[in-house]
Write a structure and sequence with these properties.
Layout: E1 19-20, E2 23-24, H1 27-31, H2 38-58, H3 68-79, E3 89-90, H4 91-101, H5 107-116, E4 128-131, E5 149-152, H6 154-160, E6 170-172, E7 179-181, H7 190-193, E8 196-199, E9 204-207, H8 212-224, H9 230-233, E10 247-249, H10 252-260, E11 262-268, E12 270-276, E13 280-287, H11 294-306, E14 313-318, E15 327-331, H12 337-347, E16 351-357, E17 359-362, E18 365-368, H13 371-412, H14 414-427, H15 430-441, H16 445-453, H17 461-486, H18 488-506, E19 513-515, E20 532-538, E21 542-547, E22 561-562, E23 572-579, E24 583-588, E25 592-597, E26 611-612, E27 624-630, E28 638-643, E29 647-652, E30 667-668, E31 678-684, E32 689-694, E33 698-703, E34 717-718, E35 728-733, E36 739-744, E37 748-753, E38 767-768, E39 779-785, E40 790-795, E41 799-804, E42 818-819, E43 829-835
Parallel strand pairs: 10-19
Antiparallel strand pairs: 1-2, 3-5, 4-5, 6-7, 8-9, 10-11, 11-16, 12-13, 13-15, 14-15, 17-18, 20-21, 20-23, 21-26, 22-41, 24-25, 24-27, 25-30, 28-29, 28-31, 29-34, 32-33, 32-35, 33-38, 36-37, 36-39, 37-42, 40-41, 40-43
Helix pairs in contact: 3-4, 4-5, 8-13, 8-18, 13-16, 13-17, 13-18, 14-15, 15-16, 17-18
Length: about 850
């Protein structure tokens, strides 16, 4: 161990001859003053301190994966005889042994290291078998060392096995009174399977734990192919395997760490959604990221709820037990559980970034290592340990064989041996007898001494057979040991066998799941519930969204609820039901289309004005004439566009997918003639029947197949022949089982079975769909509905009336209908929208 004790320097600035306490300062004091450069002294002292921390305290050795304090604890426990099959011993006794003999750095750091090696949530494979309170995953500290007890785990015994066989070097301890091992023999690739973290001076290490079975498979593959690549190794070693489980997203960070020694992985808790009584849901967390405190995690969730960064949480329960973690986040009814979970990932330690730095001590120097290098250094260490163990066993075997050779001679010459032994009693000198044996039989000193130490009963013929059998076995063992030392192949075979035995005894299943998908930064959309919304756009260009849940259903003839405060000259022109995650396509009178996501429309209260839409999309002098909601863009879904003058065009929605990446910028949707404008857009599957409705009360039903698909900039074809002054007000899909709901500007409406509308060819005038009079006013909108649907009526003053379709009477095509809404003076209906579930 490097000691960081800079030389003591006495700085005395008192003048010579001064008197202090009756003593005169003379030349003897001056002789004790050592002039030195302060800059050099600080540099040298700091470097000694830094190297002491780096080499002797905080960084692991690449061979056994242990920091010095961990190695000293395990070695001291082994010396105390605290094997896995022996009784536990008080932790205080172990700490005192380590501190007094090997690690004079305080009892608490030693005890913290001991407790860490016993914690199943810290070590993937514990090295100490603890009894008592050794802390919890919630961050609770271990009990006092006088209360807890410990002994070595079986895996730790594998790390210490053969340490007595000269397999590793020993060095003097801190006071040179004892010796301690520089490194443990370690059959176990501990640096990888248990990982390590530590902050030294100017450097840090953070090696994640791995699965033992996978690491053994990787080592076996490298023993077969020393030049194996990282990519090939990752077929065996998939990635980190944390004791607390969790889910790793993506392999890019793993590959970087295994290739360069540095990388960052995204680790998430394991959570799922459960349904509970009352139609509510709850988020259940069963595994949390490595080194994250469960208690801190719960405190973070509570704090976010109190700060209203996460809404919709009804209750937080910790149902964890000895069987595992179970933290339940109960949600309020109607809350989007996935959005809440995404917010928890973003704002709490349910998702963490684990930075990997594979730094370890190699040949006395700190180095950042790739995965292949770590495995190679471990293999080289095991080769050296097996060689030294084999050489030690060979030496012992040869020595014993040499002794047995002498004993065999003694058995053959039993009488003469006995006679010589008698001389011992006469001369009373063992040395004389030993010398006599050596001279007469050509024995070595060790052989002669062994004969003299034998009892006479061991010189019988029966014992000779036993000695001969042992001698023959030793000769075979010596041949085998020499072959191992002479053959690299046999050496590797032994290492393989030991690794396979390690896997059979201690291998287990992976706890941490690795998924291919990379985790991208959570977007605003991920944190916004995909709830139903009402989007309104006024004639004056003000747009807003309101949660649909804020509107109550009213009976027919009711006054409705106000959807927004409008100026006298302004009124709601467009209203649609959508969701926060849907795309909103805004079609303008010039034939262009713009795109926003639902959540990008500013939310406002029912009485709020909203935001001026040119501040959201650059429409300039254009006027929005149609707005639709769409969940995604597909080549199998069409946008059917109908103009005021009865021109129709259909284009696949995939032609507009360009808008996903350039929201806010417009593209051409249809090329329009002068004095033409777009009045309706419908989503179809390309094989639907359409029904167009005009303001004067005419309707035309025809097949969509009569309209071919066109490009975005095409003009379209004639759909409906109109009388002079008439105009198209809507287009819907025609389904016989549905009704055509028609609403007039003065609040009259009715349902007409769509089956009553005959089919015509495209370009016809159609049939009457409603009686238009001065009392009813012109038709302002039409929707295809069925029983069970709901609709919302919009008035020029901003009133909204939501009602069930069942409440609207069914009439013939020529009837005027019934009053649906009572209008105030000067007010009029400007449009209607159908509430569609899931749209």
């Amino acid at each position: 161990m490097i000691q960081s004790f800079p030389r003591a320097i006495l700085y005395d600035v008192r003048p010579l001859g001064s008197i202090e306490g009756g003593v005169t300062i003379g030349m003897d004091a001056v002789e004790r003053i050592v002039p030195t450069n302060l800059e050099e002294e600080m540099r040298d002292s700091f470097m000694l301190y830094a190297m002491s921390v780096i080499m002797g305290r905080m960084l692991p050795d690449v061979r056994d994966g242990l920091k010095p304090v961990q190695r000293r604890i395990l070695y001291a426990m082994n010396e105390l005889g605290l094997q896995s099959n022996k009784p536990y011993r008080k932790s205080a006794r172990i700490v005192g042994e380590v501190m007094g003999k090997y690690h004079p750095h305080g009892d608490m750091p030693i005890y913290e290291a001991l407790a860490g090696m016993a914690q199943e949530f810290t070590m993937r494979y514990t090295l100490i078998d603890g009894q008592g309170n050794f802390g919890s995953i919630d961050g609770d500290p271990p009990g006092a060392m006088r209360y807890t007890e410990a002994r070595l785990s079986k895996l730790a015994e594998e790390m210490l096995e053969d340490i007595e066989k000269n397999t590793v070097d020993f060095v003097p301890n801190f006071d040179s009174s004892l010796e301690e091992p520089v490194v443990l023999p370690s059959k176990v690739p501990n640096l990888l399977i248990n990982g390590c973290s530590g902050i030294a001076v100017g450097m840090a290490t953070k090696i994640p734990p791995h699965n033992l079975s996978e690491v053994v498979d990787g080592l076996l593959a490298m023993l077969e192919n020393p030049d194996i690549s990282v990519e090939e190794l990752m077929q065996y070693i998939k990635g980190p395997d944390f004791p607390t489980g969790g889910v790793i997203y993506g392999k890019r960070g793993i590959e970087e760490a295994y290739t360069r020694g540095r990388g960052t992985i995204v680790l998430r808790a394991r959570a799922h959604i459960e349904e509970v009584k009352g139609g509510r849901e709850r988020i259940v967390i069963t595994e949390i990221p490595y080194q994250v405190s469960g208690e801190n995690l719960k405190e973070q969730i509570v704090r976010l709820y109190r700060e209203k960064k996460i809404e919709g949480i009804a209750e937080l329960q910790d149902l964890s037990s000895k069987d595992g973690i179970r933290i339940c986040v109960e949600l309020q009814r109607g809350v989007d559980s996935q959005v809440v979970l995404n917010k928890l990932y973003k704002h709490t330690q349910l998702q963490i970034s684990f930075g990997i730095i594979m730094l370890a001590i190699v040949d006395g120097q700190p180095r950042i290592l790739s995965l292949p290098l770590i495995l190679k250094h471990f293999i080289e260490h095991r080769k050296q340990v097996v060689r030294r163990r084999t050489a030690y066993e060979l030496e012992r075997a040869e020595h014993r064989a040499h002794i047995l050779e002498g004993l065999l001679i003694a058995v053959e010459k039993m009488d003469r041996i006995v006679e010589i032994v008698r001389l011992i009693g006469r001369s009373r000198s063992i040395e004389n007898a030993r010398d006599a044996l050596m001279e007469e039989f050509g024995l070595s000193e060790a052989q002669a001494q062994a004969i003299l130490e034998m009892r006479l009963q061991q010189l019988t013929g029966l014992e000779r057979d036993k000695i001969k059998v042992e001698y023959d076995e030793l000769l075979k063992k010596i041949r085998d040991l020499k072959e191992i030392l002479a053959s690299e192949r046999k050496l590797i075979s032994i290492i393989k066998q030991e690794l396979l035995q390690l896997k059979r005894e201690f291998g287990d299943q992976r706890r941490t799941e690795i998924v291919e998908q990379e985790v991208e930064e959570l977007s605003a959309e991920d944190l916004i519930p995909d709830e139903d919304i009402v989007v309104t756009l006024s004639y004056g260009g003000y747009i807003k969204r309101i949660p649909l849940s804020q509107y109550r259903s009213f009976r027919r003839g009711g006054k409705g609820t106000r959807g927004g405060e409008m100026k006298e000259e302004d009124f709601v022109e467009h209203m649609l039901i959508s969701t926060n995650h849907s795309f909103l396509l805004f079609f303008t009178d010039t034939g262009r289309v713009y795109c926003l996501k639902g959540y990008e429309v500013p939310e406002a209260g029912k009485h709020g004005k909203g935001k001026y839409i040119p501040n959201l999309i650059p429409i300039g002098e254009e006027r929005i004439t149609a707005v639709i909601s769409i969940r995604g863009f597909s080549p199998d879904i069409y946008l059917v566009m109908v103009t005021r003058n009865g021109v129709i065009k259909k284009t696949t929605t995939s032609a507009f997918s360009y808008l996903q990446g350039v929201r806010g910028r417009g593209v051409t949707a249809i090329t329009l003639d002068p004095q033409e404008e777009l009045v309706g857009v419908e989503l179809t599957d390309g094989d639907a029947e359409l029904i167009l409705v005009s303001a004067s009360g005419m309707a035309l039903r025809f097949s969509e197949r009569e309209v071919r698909g066109m490009g975005r900039s095409a003009r379209g074809v004639k759909a409906m022949r109109l009388r002079e002054g008439d105009r198209v007000v809507g287009v819907e899909r025609a389904v016989d089982e549905m009704f055509l709901l028609i609403v007039t500007e003065n609040g009259y409406g009715k349902k007409v079975p769509i089956s009553e509308f005959p089919r015509y060819s495209r370009g016809a005038r159609g049939v009457i769909c409603g009686k238009v009079t001065k009392e009813t006013g012109e038709i302002v909108g039409a929707k295809a509905v069925r029983e069970g649907d709901e609709i919302v009526l919009v008035t020029a003053t901003g009133m909204l009336l939501r009602m069930d379709v069942e409440e609207i009477p069914t009439y013939s095509r020529t009837a005027r209908g019934a009053r649906l809404i009572r209008l105030g003076d000067g007010d009029r209906v400007t449009g209607l929208e159908k509430v569609e579930e899931g749209r």
